[in-house]
Amino acid sequence: MKRCLLLLFVTAFLPAQSAPEVEITAEPHHHLVFTNAQVRVFNVDVPPHSETLLHRHRHDYIYVTLGDSEVVNAVQGKDPVTVKLKDGQTGFLSGGYAHIARNLSTQTFRNVTVEILQDEKLRHAPAHWDPAHPEDDRGLDILEGGTKEILFVKDGIRASEFELQPNAAIPSRPHAGPLLLIAINDLDLFTTDPRTHGPSEPSPTPRHFRSGDSLWLPHGFGRPLTNAGPAVAKFVTLEFH
Question: Is 205 helix (H, G, I), strand (E, B) or coil?
């Protein structure tokens, strides 16, 4: 009986140590949905009681969890760790490791993984979004019809979570840098871009997002983002200088 238990224990932890390693782009549960010079965005889905291949994260990355889940994180060369994640939970992880993610839940494990392609340079960026006001790196702001919670600043990127009531808006962002928006729930937003070098649409139509959809808004996009749907809109933004 003891030998059987030992065999089961060894078998459970063997894959992360001996499985062949693949690049993240070759891992079948990671679906590349957007790429540019700054980021690669993957939609990740792992069915219940399934696991990813052993894959390498070569870059720092930010993840946004979609739905509650329980996952075993088996990092190559380390003991596996079980983590419980909440819907909308957003975090930052340094790259340079390979792992297997094993879904213990009865629901599909889903997240959006945003690789920071210029991480080596950005690690030397100022530690605070605004060095003159380091207290602004975290905190909750009450908006008209919603909230904005600044979660963290890492690699020169500020992550914030928004909840907007119907018809509420993010205020305009003068001199705005690029921004990646990630939808936590299904939502509709007015995202028309009326930058001064081009006319705005006379009758803007809302853009529909499903949970996990993302949108890159380029440098100079300063228009307020307005919840055009009938329910609360929840999304995360990653702001780049």
Answer: coil
Residue 79: other Cβ atoms inside 10 A: 8
Dump pLDDT digits (tens) for 94-140: 999 999 999 999 999 999 999 999 999 999 888 777 776 676 778 89
For position 16, what pLDDT does the model report?
52
Residue-range domain boundaries for the chain: 19-119, 126-240
Strand order of the sheet with strand 55-57?
Answer: 22-23, 55-57, 97-103, 69-75, 81-85
| Three-class secondary structure assignment of 67-131 | CCEEEEEEECCCCCEEEEECCCCEEEECCCEEEEEEECCCCCEEEEEEEECCHHHHCCCCCCCCC
| CA separation for the pair 158, 202 (Å, rounded) | 32
Would you say domain 19-119 falls under CATH 2.60.120.10? yes
- Is the pTM higher than 0.90? The answer reads no
